[in-house]
Amino acid sequence: MSSLVTNLLILFLVWYGSVCPTSSVPYEYSISNLDLDKFTSEKEAFHLFQIWKKENEREYQTLEEEAARFQIFKSNLKYVREKNAKRKSPNDSRLGLNKFSDMSYEEFSKIYLHEIEKPIMKGNYSKMILNDASCPNAPSSWDWRTKGAVTHVKDQGGCGGCWAFSATGAIEGITQIVSKWLPDLSEQQLISCVTRNKGCEGGWYGRAFKYVIRNGGITSGANYPYTAKDSACNSSRAQNIITTIDSYNYWYHTPISGRSLRCFVYNQPVSVSLYASAEFKSYTGGIFKGHDCLGIGSCKLNHAVLIVGYGSSDDGQDYWIVKNSWGANWGEQGYIRIKRNTGSTRGVCNINCSGAYPTKGKNEIPALKLATSI
Ligand SMILES: *[C@@H]1O[C@H](CO)[C@@H](O)[C@H](O)[C@H]1NC(C)=O
Ligand SMILES: *[C@@H]1O[C@H](CO)[C@@H](O)[C@H](O)[C@H]1NC(C)=O
Ligand SMILES: *[C@@H]1O[C@H](CO)[C@@H](O)[C@H](O)[C@H]1NC(C)=O
Ligand SMILES: *[C@@H]1O[C@H](CO)[C@@H](O)[C@H](O)[C@H]1NC(C)=O
Q1: Peptidase C1A papain C-terminal domain location, by residue (predicted)?
Q2: 86: which of 179, 199, 229, 306 lies 20 to 30 Å off by Cα?
Q3: Nearest ligand to the CA atom of 312
């Protein structure tokens, strides 16, 4: 038996002996309410691991795996504690334990995060944004969730299909804004049918928009349900369309200004790419500044999300309201607030490097210059 497994068994015995009457922390506590600084010893960390496993309904096949997962859990716990200790103000974003806490960042990246190669734009479906747009009437804060243009937070599960969730979110949004009706659209259709993307191994929402235009629309999640797996396109489901888009506008690997992005977001929810760092993985709340993205190369991107609004905190920090697709138990009920107007060209974690939004009806932003169809 390996020493890791032996240690685990000893911890199990100690833990079973002490958990009920004598432990200072009841087993039933929720992870989010616990002070992680109290769990520093091996025994306490193990206790916390048991609470975490129960809360996340995690079971392992073998003791070897459980022992290995516990090691990773401990190093994530240490990471979260150290990062939180460095917070300068109580308003700085917080890290915490979440459903990814038994995975290392490397392992997590292989499943959830994928860099995408530069897409080749062909056909007359999209236009590149050329100038800096400004919307003089845009208010200082805006939230599409309060206008009924955003569906519930979805969960991509163990499939790297963030691009499909980002794309459905943008189409759901523009449908509600133009047609006054909010559909819940099918990510699985995009994962299975957008053959130019790589399904659960990554892709670009722009190609999803192009597919939807060529397909004559997209169906509902109820008609083409999510399986979190690659599979062949079911064309009879794919043709049962419930909403359409006309075209899409995009920018790629050329950061746009925060002012333009604010203008686009005021017009509709916008798909963007960013670099999801280790801090991003463990984010649990506050305004995220992405300190560990500072060393990330020029416009390097590995994740797609949806910006649904913007605002400023009481102490004057501007932020984007960003919808993620890692379930409502990640971040702030599935959302992350990302700092805006930092003055850096690429934005926090490269958030203004690449993005796109679909067009439908007459929702075009005035005075926006677009490349002729490419
Ligand atoms: C693209 O071109 C085709 C053929 O010229 C035309 O039928 C179609 O409507 C065009 N689509 C868009 C989005 O402009
Ligand atoms: C496609 O979906 C329909 C239901 O809409 C189902 O009856 C059919 O078996 C599916 N086809 C394949 C090849 O899975
Ligand atoms: C990118 O984003 C930052 C932060 O929101 C902003 O300050 C900056 O002006 C943006 N774009 C460019 C091209 O600088
Ligand atoms: C934190 O935010 C509160 C209100 O949101 C503000 O009053 C306070 O000054 C902020 N603290 C710091 C250190 O920025």
Answers
A1: 138-359
A2: 306
A3: 4
% of the chain surpassing 90 pLDDT: 67
Give the position, in ligand 1's atom list, of the atom nearest the Cα of 125.
Answer: 13
Structure confidence by residue, pLDDT tens digits, 117-151? 777 667 778 888 887 888 888 999 999 999 999 99
Distance 263 CA to ligand 3 centre (A): 13
Which stretch of 17-21, 39-43, 183-187, 312-316 has the lowest confidence by average pLDDT?
A: 17-21
Candidates 300, 141, 303, 160; CA nearest to 229 is 160
Tallying the residues shown for the chain, one arrives at: 374
Q: Quote the CA–CA distance of 206 and 167 in Å, as a whole number.
A: 8
Ligand 1: list residues with CB < 6 Å.
124-125, 213, 247
| 237 pocket-lining for ligand 2 (C-beta < 6 Å) | yes
First-residue to last-residue Cα distance in the chain:
62
Which residues are identified as catalytic?
A: 303, 324
pTM over 0.85, yes/no = yes
How much is the pLDDT for 39? 82
Give the residue, by CA position, lying nearest to ligand 3 atom 2.
347
CA 352 – ligand 2 centroid, Å: 40
The per-residue pLDDT for range 242-273, each reduced to its tens digit, is 999 999 999 888 877 767 899 999 999 999 99
